[in-house]
Design a protein that fits this description.
This protein is mainly β and about 70 residues long. It has strands at about 10-15, 20-30, 30-40, 45-50, 55. It starts with 9 loop residues before the first strand and ends in a 13-residue tail after the last strand.
């Protein structure tokens, strides 16, 4: 991965699944565990941890427009 995942990034498992927000990264001698929060299908907040190699930056599907309200 050319860019490093950092706190606040939105990621997704390389195999798919929900978009998740990175809340912490633990570096244990080069092995990085990434802690994430996300909402499941029932809109319940979930917390999980993953190996950094399992994750990719989230990319919105083509045709999806995200609007930000200010």
């Amino acid at each position: 991965m050319t860019d490093q995942i950092k706190k606040g990034d939105v990621v997704q498992l390389k195999s798919g699944g929900p978009q998740m927000t990175v809340t912490d990264i633990i570096d244990e001698g080069g092995y990085k565990t990434v802690h994430c929060r996300f909402f499941d299908k029932n809109k319940n907040l979930q917390v999980a941890e993953f190996d950094e190699l399992e994750l990719a930056f989230y990319k919105a599907p083509i045709g999806v427009v995200r609007l930000h309200r200010g």
